[in-house]
Task: structure prediction
Amino acid sequence: MNLNLAGKHFLVTGGTKGIGRAIAETFAAEGAYVSSCARTAPDVTSMVKALEASGNKAFGRALDVGDGAALAAFVNDAARAMGRLDGVVANTSALSSGSNVADFDEAYRIDLIDRKS
Result:
């Protein structure tokens, strides 16, 4: 499939395992540059090395997306490293499990509203 993503840069939070990893690999398979963050440094390193081994540009950092300053620094550094930022996939709320309104509110807050600074 050709989605005309070659040379574009996408940032995927929570991109080292599961759905996030599949998203990152799909972007890379389309020729896009991929940046990703997750909480575990070895997982981030492994993801970056795997994408680079297949000939793609990749950037990653271990961080907690709930830390607003760390997340902002990562986004800025990723954009600078790749020369641009074309899209973001906020994939971290999958870590919040539960089926009540409070759980939904927490996931929504993590992905879209505020960050701890």
User: Anything to note?
Assistant: The longest helix spans residues 68-82. The radius of gyration is 14 Å. The chain has a mean pLDDT of 88.
